[in-house]
Design goal:
The complex is a heterodimer of chains A (about 100) and B (about 170). Chain A is an all-alpha fold and about 100 residues long. Chain A has helices spanning about 5-25, 30-55, 60-90. Chain A is about 75% helix and about 0% strand. In chain A, helix 1 (about 5-25) packs antiparallel against helix 2 and helix 2 runs antiparallel to helix 3 (about 60-90). Chain A is elongated and about 55 Å long. Chain B has 2 domains: about 1-90, Four Helix Bundle (Hemerythrin (Met), subunit A) (Up-down Bundle); about 130-170. Helix content of chain B is about 70%, strand content about 0%. The termini of chain B are far apart. The chains are: A mainly alpha (about 100), B mainly alpha (about 170). Chains A and B meet through helix 1, helix 2 and helix 3 of A and helix 1, helix 2, helix 3, helix 4 and helix 5 of B.
Chain lengths: ~100, ~170
């Protein structure tokens, strides 16, 4: 319980957001939206880290969230650069067209 | 009202908004709308951080995520003119399978994680953990080495992004 809110609700919220992100990754073909869904999944995990950090009064969880955000920033900058290069080469960011390694 | 406290009301509203906007991210057709809904979702998540007394992370979430990362997404979408709604859709079968797999994932996640409440810990009052003073203290003593490594990671990402973005590398 954090100020009357059971930790179960934070777990449920985080699981629902993570699932929405996972469904987005599986169901969409636009690479940029897939990237955004990955960000959503990272944020779902962050909520849980902050909730448990406040519950146990331990700052390490929040420091970990800080590192997750930094790694997400690095990942997005490189990933979007890769996407621009893909778009320059095949004039599309449809994931189904990116099958050169398959054949 | 309904026997719920202010904290519980705020948590309910904010989590409803976060889930709603996240659903809109996945289901909206144009990428620009997706980015805008994701920004709204991040604002709701920042509200939840404030509710958890993590003031520093709430501000950093808005500045880094809603400010920097989402602007990067917007720039890429607008500069490459990707905002056409003619994205080829996946087949209905694939979407149904994705939904089923997502539902199973949700089931597994909740059933595994719900045991955490068995610890039966509870906290009331204002938490001091999320203040800049405390977080900075932990970050620059206990986590000093990871902090320095992260700066190297950011430098590598910067170099990598420039190398990828260049037209022809000689």
């Amino acid at each position: 319980m954090i100020n009357g809110i059971s930790i179960d609700y934070f777990i449920l919220l985080s699981a629902v957001l993570f699932t929405i992100g996972a469904i987005g990754v599986m169901a969409r073909r636009n690479s940029i939206i897939i990237f955004m869904c990955i960000e959503l999944m990272l944020n779902a995990v962050n909520i849980l880290l902050v909730a448990f950090s406040t519950l146990h009064q331990n700052a390490e969880g929040q420091v970990f969230v800080f590192f997750v955000m930094t790694v997400a920033a690095a990942e997005v900058s490189v990933g979007l650069a890769i996407l621009t290069m893909i778009y320059r080469n095949i004039k599309s960011i449809d994931t189904n067209l990116l099958s050169n390694l398959k054949d | 009202m309904l026997g719920l406290s202010v904290h519980q009301w705020l948590f309910g509203i904010l989590s409803f908004l976060a889930v709603l906007f996240s659903l809109m991210v996945v289901f909206s057709r144009s990428p620009i709308n997706s980015v805008l809904y994701l920004i709204m979702s991040f604002f709701s998540i920042s509200g939840i951080y404030l509710l958890l007394d993590a003031q520093f992370l709430a501000v950093v979430n808005i500045v880094v995520y809603a400010g920097a990362i989402m602007v990067l997404f917007l720039f890429v979408i607008m500069l490459m003119n990707l905002n056409h709604d003619t994205e080829p859709q996946r087949t209905v079968l694939t979407k149904i399978i994705a939904g089923i797999i997502g539902g199973m994932l949700l089931l597994v996640l909740t059933s595994v994680l719900k045991g955490a409440s068995a610890l039966d810990k509870s906290f009331y009052g204002t938490s001091e953990v999320g203040l800049v003073k405390n977080l900075g203290n932990v970050l620059f003593t206990q986590f000093l080495f990871p902090f320095e490594i992260v700066s190297v990671l950011l430098l590598a990402a910067m170099v990598g992004a420039v190398m990828m973005g260049k037209k022809n590398i000689n």
